[in-house]
Amino acid sequence: MKQWETSELYREVKSRPSEDGSLPFQKDSAGFNTEARRRCLHLLEYSPRTVYQLKKRLMDDGFSAEQTDDAIRYAESFGYVDDGNYAMEYVRTGCQKKSRRQLYMQLSSRGVDKESIEDALEAYADEQENTVRRLARKRLMQKPPRTEEDFLKAVKSLVSKGFPYEMAKRAVWELRDEYGSTNK
Fold first, then answer.
1. Residues spanned by the domain of 94
2. Taking Cα atoms as reference points, which of 111, 93, 129 lies closest to residue 53?
3. What pLDDT does residue 148 have?
């Protein structure tokens, strides 16, 4: 018995038919074996993945392109694979620590299409200002600024993380009054 045959997701899916009415994990008319489908569900049980990530992983595991596509369509028929939802959830959890640019790059490297990324980023656009303020405060608290140059270093730090220069500068300058500057 394979490890993924004992998983909860496997047992749940095994008990209900897919959209085409076939029972789970039976060879279909094209002769696809169920091993790729099982492996796909096993991968999804540990963490959500994009179509690109699943395709890459299944191909690396030695499944053919046809078996891989079948397994992904199978998982999609149950709603377990959806790049739009993946992007939305990724941005929701990442917007507290990462810039819009970082999130965009990470999602595109995971194979999420541009439209899904833009939709997800747009949904959490107002969080960007709060994130840059929070990170600016954290940076200034770690090493309290003494000079104007220390404030500029904080701005550079935020810009290097992918935040727009004007937004980073505004956040740091708002906090400058709290910390003061001895050498203006």
1. 83-123
2. 111
3. 84
Which amino acid appears at position 18 of this protein?
A: S
184 in a structural domain: no
pLDDT value at residue 89: 93
26 pLDDT higher than 80: no
The CATH number given to whatever domain includes residue 107 is: 1.10.10
List residues bridging with 183 in a β-sheet.
147
Does residue 153 surpass a pLDDT of 70? yes
Residues 36, 50, single domain; the answer is: yes
Torsions phi, psi for 104 (to 5 deg): -60, -45
| Whether residue 91 is found in the same domain as residue 153 | no
Instruction: Give yes or no: residues 68 and 90 share one domain.
Output: no
- DSSP per position, 37-97: HHHHHHHHHHS---HHHHHHHHHHTT--HHHHHHHHHHHHHTT---HHHHHHHHHHHHTTT
Question: What SS3 state is found at 183?
Answer: strand
- Contact between 57 and 42 under an 8 Å Cβ cutoff? The reply is no
- Alpha-carbon span 162 to 90, nearest angstrom: 17
Residue from 51, 115, 127 nearest 91 by CA: 127
Residue 32 belongs to a domain: yes
